[in-house]
Amino acid sequence: MAELPTACLQLHKPAFHSTGVDCFGPMSVKVGRRQEKCWGVTFKCLTTRAVHLELLSNMDADAYLMALRRFIARRAHPAELWSDRGKNFKGGERELREAFASMAPVLQNQLARQQIKFSFNTCSPTLRRSTALYTCVGAQSLPEEVLLTVLLEVEAILNSKPLGYVSADIADIDPVTPNSLLMGRPDGALPQVVYPDTEILIQRRWRHSQVLADHFWSRFIREFLPGLQTRQKWQASPPELLEKAVVLMVDPQLPRALWPIGHVTRVHRSNDGCIRSADVNIKGHAYTRPVARLVMLPALPLGEDDESPTPDLPD
């Protein structure tokens, strides 16, 4: 098991100094009499666990860059931004890099301190769904203002979660929460408004948003919070992945019954000396994947006419 990354251990840095970004969805919104898809994007501070949510009209680089601008306008620009290798994330980084390179040298010198370091994980992009949020919203089509209100209510719930031990003594000080670091108080939300579930079926959008936020809270404390108690750690290390080893690549995005098999062309070691990712050649295409997504297959036994235990693979 690897040590915590340096981005999670930043001291004396403001919130969202090191930020992770990821997308989830899709969700359905009402626009007039038609329905359109939209997605959500999560900006998470890797040090304080503060969360910032935004809506995306589509999954291209332009929508991501506008969401990034809205995030920076409200939370200030991060020093480093971590994401997967999604096309919208890679395209946004490339467009910002090209725009900076086209500036005059004087502007480049002035803006050098405001540059964001983009870091991409080795895992393949996977569109995630927030289980509690998606269960509450489901397949129903919501007006955009209702969905945006629910997202911000969810953001307030997540940012009010204590970061450490909570004392049972009312005389003790309040626990530190992400909201304490963002706005100077533990919880900035209004008091909870409780409406019956039948309010979903009426046209009062305000009440509808509060019912959905209450549903999220119910599922959040029932399904997510108990999982924080689980602690797993392995003590023994599996055999190291070597070059030319035959591996089976695990890819959740592939259709069922497909088993991509290739051979390792290069391994990548982290600062602690362990192999964390590798380059795999499958039918002439190169992929970089973490070792957790690679299953090393046993080598074939040597026969009388065999020169190598590695089976031949199609180019």
TrEMBL record:
GO MF, any single term: nucleic acid binding
Residue ranges of domain DUF5641 in the record: 204-297
Domain of life: Eukaryota
Pfam family, one: DUF5641
Protein name according to UniProt: DUF5641 domain-containing protein
Phylogenetic lineage: Eukaryota, Metazoa, Chordata, Craniata, Vertebrata
